[in-house]
Amino acid sequence: MTEAIKKVVGPRVPAGEFRARRARYVLPSLLLGAAAVLLAGSFFLPYWKMTLHAPQYPKGLHVQAYLNRLEGDVGEIDGLNHYIGMRKLDEAAQLERQTSAMLVVVLVLLVLGAIFIHSPWAALLSAPALLFPAGFLLDLQLWLARFGTNLDPHAALSSSIKPFVPPVLGEDVIGQFRTVAEPGAGLLVATAASFIVLTALWFHRRAYKPLFDRFRRRSAPTILGVRPPQQVQHA
Amino acid sequence: MSAWNRAMTAMLAAAGLLLAGCDREPEFEEEEGAPAPKATQAPPAGPAGSVADRIARERSLTPDDVVAALKTYMPSGRLDEYVLFASGGHSGQVFAIGVPSMRLLRTIAVFTPEPWQGYGYGTGENILKDGDVPGVAIRWADTHHPGLSETNGEYDGQFLFIGDKANSRVAVIDLRDFETKQIVKNPVAINDHGGCFVTPNTEYVVEGGQYGHPLGWAYAPIEEYQKQYRGLVTFWKFDRSKGRIDVSQSFCIELPPYWQDLFDSGKLESDGWVFGNSINTELATGGVEKGQRPFEAGVSQRDNDYLHIFNWKKAEEVFKAGKVEKIKGFPVIALKTAIDEQILFFAPEPKSPHGVDVAPKGDFIVVAGKLDPHVSIYSIARIKKAIADKNWTPDPYGVPVLNYDAVKEAQVELGLGPLHTQFDDKGYAYTSLFLDSAVARWTLGGPYQSLHSDPAWTLVKKLAVHYNVGHISTAEGDSASPDGKYLISLNKWSIDRFLHPGPLYPQNLQLIDISQGGDKMQMLYDMPIGSGEPHYGQIIKADKLKPWSVYPEIGWDPHKQAVDATAPKAGQEKIVRDGKTVTVYMTASRSHFTPEHVQVRQGDHVVWRITSIERTEDATHGFSLPGYNVNLSLEPGETVTFEFDAVNDGVYTWYCSEFCSALHLEMMGYFLVEPSKAAAAEPAAGADSSGAK
Known about the structure:
The complex is a heterodimer of chains A (about 240) and B (about 700). Chain A has seven helices and five strands.
């Protein structure tokens, strides 16, 4: 193993140390594992849902966005949207939906990989999973803005419905519809995974920083056979 | 106190005042804002109570009126507990009416073309044609008795049958989409009356005959009435899986020409038996113009007519054994066979009775006297014993007439003109009294005695109805477990009940509360029917009905109740010419048809297919093509095919005839029919049957 890889992977925990303080080293691994499981599971749950309320739809119209597909009254909503010149919902975020399964697998593997990385690199590996929920919402907001502001000017209702940007979460009013956008269970689970990753990283740092610092000192390069002076340790 | 609390208190006080007023009229009539009766401990009436009070006074409403209003009023969005399926009489339709609100929910087109549903204007023509007689299109009916399909003697909410008295036909309505699926014309009978009454598991739909006539629509002089004319009962086999009557497994039984009248099927204790009655054992043939007794007198000479008792399970065996004659190709069990095989028995009944109705447990059969003030009650146990004992004497046609004293259970005097009987859950029977214009409540004895506290076989109450009541209907009142609660009186005359629209008055369906026992029955509501004469109705619990809100899949053919794989599909719309036949594959969705231009040549045969690709509840489109007598109802998912010859040239503007959307008016298209001269001028014209693609 080259020095560079050793530095990324970080030190292993001495057997005696591990036996002495098992909880300290097991906890971050368990938390990262749990986060990975939650993130993987979230794929099978809707990330986002919008309900459209209007007088002639007393039960409301519902659309649920999974990472890889849309479900619900998509046909009806598309049918209504054609009056205002909006593109079909299925045309949105096609790349994201096609690659979402692979992306989640990668994120999960990275988080699982972080379990075996006992260096600050663990944080870097976990970062994509940490930021994933926020990234999802940002991407969705961009798509909503793109769809809401690119209406066909020749559509039937173009004179009464002007371009608009629906908020990714919260309420809006478009024509006779009041829309309510809410996070889905999947997004909530992924967000929980984010927080668990954050917690795990804190415990991870607590467990491995002393080991890593020691490891770095030992493997620090020598200058003409002489080690550089060690930093002063404050109590 | 918060505003909310104040409002609630006021409402409670108002309710208390109204309810208390119901029993104690003087208090109700006290001044505005008067305290509610002390017994209720209600606080002083608030503003709402004053308003209700004032309205009641201004509109001269009695406390009973207010209670009736409270019992029937449905706030917007509230749904009814029951549905009444009422025959539409001469309209040839069936009405579905919510109970207790008495709101008309649907007019189901059955025997008569009805443009809103497209029935007879592009769809349903084949169903209607099956009800024709050779050379004559019959486009009306006198619908009489609706019969809901049953399982173990209970309504199951799957199918509805309705008989046409005038032309002896039976129709099948599928209650998944409330549409008519089949009409069968009786090939042996020219008219009927006793249809439709189903057997307890809808094995058969029983259609009893009416006026004696030569079977098979044949000719015979009236002087040969006794020899050549006959009565009839028909057993239509129902195939539940197909949702159709299976004509090939149906049969008739030949009867003496006694003018069979109403029928009912036995259940539970009387399962396997069917009952009918008759009104002309006199064999009167009329001829008032020849100095003979008119029918109305001639038919009423004898003291007795005959209750007809059929062992239909035996009849089915005989039919399956092939012991039948064929009339017009239809199997008929001859009268002699019916006698020899012990399928048919008679029992004397007071002369010219009307309804015959089987009690909920199947144990008693109630015959209403019509010209006799009694209902006569027979016991199936006694009937079975009399048959076993051969306690009978034959009539002139050889049919065993059971000894009346051996089979009768009781007689109850009710009043003038008893016609039809229904039942409730408390051991009461209800009989309409035509001449008295009243509904009689009376008690059943035997096993029903424990359900009520009145003496058995006794008249308890007569409630006036307005006017000339025919049938009555109680909630599930002819099933094995009646619900009670409501009775609807189907009155022929309304006289002063409504603003009258000229000399043809509406019928009056009156809703009556029968939920309390003893002499408590309350008139609640009058519903005018200005379309046909509702004859009989059945009231089913609404939650037994499971109708579709949209057709299950896009491309659904309601006549097959399945997806038509060849139906036009979204994105595959096209117009295909094959010789002189042009086939249009069209879809409809808000707010356009695709395609929007259809061009043919005069003389072309046009096959026009349209699929509604809607999936949204209530998003129905119409399709109306002027000049060609076409109007369709395209319910979400439905596919329709209609055909016609483009006989006239010109430009025809079709449009969606259901107001479907804000762009409904824009939902149209052009049907362009080139004149045939222009077509002839072109070398590649449609005259070449192989040239077109």
